[in-house]
Each structure stands twice: as structure tokens, then as C-alpha cells.
Amino acid sequence: MFNNNTIQRFADLETPFYYYDLDALKQTLDACREASVKHNFHVHYAMKANFNPRVIDTVQAYGFGADCVSGNEVKAAIEHGFGKDKVVFAGVGKSDKEINLALDADIFCFNVESVQELEIINDLAAAKGKVAGVAIRINPNVDAHTHHYITTGLDENKFGINTWQLNDVVDTLRKSANLNFLGIHFHIGSQITDMEVYGSLCIRINEMQDWFEDHGFAVKILNAGGGLGVDYYNPDTNAIPDFESYFSVFKKFLNVKPGQEVHFELGRALVAQSASLISRVLYVKNGQKKNFLILDAGMTELMRPMLYQAYHAIENLSRGRGAMIEEANAPGTLQPAPQIKYDVVGPICESTDCFRKDVDLPQSYRGDLIAIRTAGAYGEVMASGYNLRDHVKSVYSQ
Ligand code: LLP
Q1: Do 277 and 263 have their domain in common?
Q2: Are 366 and 262 within one domain?
């Protein structure tokens, strides 16, 4: 991601900023497209992961659909050229205004998360003389084996409709003339790296589609959601997620019937490795117990470490990994730069504003450029204006 030219280019730029490597993004999109197309699987990009305009334009150009979770995301998807027949709208709390916006845009499908929401969409569609395509988001009670803050498919989570409520769902569908039942939708969590979890999900999807068909509803769409994880520890050596294995699990275990479409909603896997947060060291504070690198970026620019104890690799671009320095007593003789443990922290007035404790880095100095890797998903989009900070800037490789 960083060659010498790139690092030199950073030297003149004001920090902090997100650096987007659009080639890395395209390589990932290529890999995903290749692995999905061969099974005739359809991928909708989960726009919540990153709605930076350059990113969504690039994703759109690959022919993926858009998975949106707000009226504004629906609007942005359409404005950025995603065909309305490829836009789906999910979310546990869609407002009437958002539902109306999506109805006006004639989107493909609402992923519906409660019986009451079905009734409201039916009423709002009726008022416009329209028929809304709907998929039922089912909470399958499958443990995603990921961080509990980003697990969504357990009975205790607020998402989806529990299986014991499905009789109410079909009763409502039967009496709702302005709803067109398209299929079933699942999303069990994010940053899932254990492929067996998806095997369990497939078994639940198979059971659920049989249930709907037994109750007289043809299931056209099987939507398995997103969640495929990335390697936060090895962003250079394992930059592209294993889309092959991921889709193969579904190919193997999902019971796809003739005429059915299989949909996915990948966010993180498509964009995470395409960006790093670039920051400068403002101050180096050497203490008796701790050394601190105080950066000009903090939780206002990248919140994941503070919110989910998420790991992001941290590099000092100015000193390099495994950098060599000249020995003081023997000019011309190089030796590895000493590694020092730093707590890498931001400037925000909160103790939680720490990217990671005890990070091994070469001895670092004020002005050094620091890269926080794998920040393309849920990074820039979760930035906040806390402390009245400037909105974080973006820089692109091309
Ligand atoms: N579909 C639905 C219904 C979702 O709720 C999500 C993510 C996705 C798809 C995309 O999931 P992905 O493929 O990106 O894992 N802010 C957290 C992640 C929250 C995920 C929310 N839902 C983080 O930074 O880890």
C-alpha cells in the first residue's frame, strides 16, 4: 500500500486523513466478483461500511447492488448509479419518511424486521398505489463467534423476526395487498472468520425456506447477509479475503431451488483493506511506566478500537518496519532501530481515546507519519465531530 513515492507525497499533506488505495480496492472487488459470478450469486455492497463517493462509484462500476440502511443511503445509491432494481433497504427502525422515499424510488426490496413494519410498509405503499417487494429478515439464532457488539443473529439481539413470530408474518402477508413477498433474509453478524458458522446458517436458511413453502409462499430470494471478516493482523500478506471459500460454503450447503436467486450483502470484506488512517505524531511522552505517542488522529477519526476493542495494525511510515540506523560509535555501520513499546493515543479528552497499548514501534519522533491499517470499513463513516474536530479528509491513490 505504501511505496516511497506515496510516503513522500504524504509529507506535504495535512494530517489526519484516510488514504484510499483504489488499486487495492479494485483487486478485492475483482476477486469477489470472480468468486461470486461463477455460482451465479448476487452481491449487494453494504454501503454502511463506507459511503465515500469514490469508493461507492468504484463499487458500483463493478455491477454490484447496494444494501442500504437509511433513506439517505438509498438516495446516495441511486444518485451514484446503482440501478433501482439492485437496491435493498434493511434496518430495524425505518421511519415513515425513509419508507416513502424508498417507495418513490421503486427499490427492489425492503428487508423487513418486524410484523408491525410489514403493516406500515403495506399502508404506505397502498397510499401511493404501489406494491412493495419485501423479504423477511429472520433471526436464525446462530452464534457468529464474533465480538458480542457486532453479533446480530441471536434471540437476544434486536434484529430480525424470531421464528416463533413467523405465523403472524404469513397472516400479515396474506392480508396485505400492497406487499409482494420475495424471500427471506439473514444477517448474523460481522467480522466472521469461522466458515463453519456459515454452514450452520445455510442449514437454518434451508429449514426456513421449506417452512415458507409449506405455508404456501414461494421463496424467490435467499439473502444470506454479509459478515465475512478480514485479516486485521496481516493487511499486506493477506489483503484479499478468501471469497472462494466463503461462497463455496453456500454452494455446498444451501439448497438452491430452480429459479431462486442467492443474495449477499458484503461490506467490510470489500473495502476494509483499501484504506489506512494516516496521522502524525504530535508529541512523544516518555513516562516511568509508559511511553505515549500522541497522534493528531483519535476516536473522532477511527472509533473501532475504542468501541469494540478492535485491533488495527499500526506502522510508523517515517521510520519503516525493521528500519536500520547508523551505529553511534561506528559511522557507516547499520543496526536495527530499537523497538519501543508505546501506547498509541489520540488527542481527545477521554481516557478511552487509545488506538492500542504497548505497540512495538521503532523509536518515534514528533512529526513522524503513522499509518493505522485496515481502516476502509466502518472508519471514515463512523467519524464524529466530537470536540468540534474538523471532519477527517480523504486522499486517493489516483
Ligand atoms: N447486512 C446487514 C443487515 C448488516 O447489518 C450489516 C452490517 C451488513 C450487511 C454488512 O456486514 P459486513 O459484511 O460489513 O460485516 N461498525 C462495526 C460493524 C457493524 C456492522 C453492522 N451491520 C465494526 O466496525 O466492526
Answers
A1: no
A2: no
Atom of ligand 1 nearest to the CA of 378: 24
**150 C-alpha to center of ligand 1: Å?**
7
Residue with the smallest CA separation from ligand 1 atom 23 is 378
C-alpha distances (whole Å) from 4 to each of 7, 8, 234, 269 are 5, 6, 20, 27
Residue 256: which residues within 8 A CB-CB, separation 6 or more? 222, 262
Q: What CATH code is carried by the domain that includes residue 141?
A: 3.20.20.10
Looking at residue 160, its pLDDT comes to 85
Which residue in 264, 279, 243, 275 sits closest to 355, CA to CA?
279
Q: How far is the CA of 391 from the centre of ligand 1 (A)?
A: 23
**pTM of the predicted model over 0.85:** yes
Q: What is the pLDDT of residue 93?
A: 95
227 CA to centre of ligand 1 in angstroms: 6
SS3 324: strand
* pLDDT for residue 322: 57
Same domain, 159 and 52: yes
CA atoms within 13 A on the CB side of 44: 36
Final residue of a domain: which of 251, 272, 293?
A: 272
CA 200 – CA 249 distance, rounded (Å) = 10
Question: Do 330 and 367 have their domain in common?
Answer: yes
Considering just the CA atoms, what is the radius of gyration of the chain in Å?
Answer: 23
Question: Which residues of the chain fall below pLDDT 70?
Answer: 144, 146-156, 321-326
**Domain total in the chain:** 2
pLDDT single digits (tens) 296-329: 999 999 999 999 999 999 999 999 755 666 677 7
Question: Is residue 309 domain-shared with residue 161, that is, in the same domain?
Answer: no
Decide which of 272, 303, 321 is a domain's last residue: 272
For ligand 1, atom 3: residue with the closest CA: 187
Q: How far apart are CA 176 and CA 165, in angstroms?
A: 17
